[in-house]
Amino acid sequence: MSILFPKVNKMPDWNYRPIYYDPEKEARKEKLAHLQAQRKVKEKDEISSQADNHDEYVPTLRHGSFRQAHEQNMPSHKRASRTSRLAFWIALLIMLIFCFYYLL
Which DSSP letter does residue 57 get? Predict the structure, then answer.
């Protein structure tokens, strides 16, 4: 009889706690967002007033400057890959010599 009517497991109970609307919390969030916006405007005004007192900003970064600095500070990539490739071939040659020596 169980072949025709298989047992169906009961769904598990969930421990769900509903989240309720809290108007005080929403008012605090809105007030905080308003104060942060005012602070940003005030800081922006201070920065612009300081910028008026100094010379105009001239960027020192140019296209490719990070790459050039990296190439100067790090060893050559080609040289490193060449030495690792050479070490691989030497190790492979030594292993082949040992294999042929023991097989013959």
Answer: P
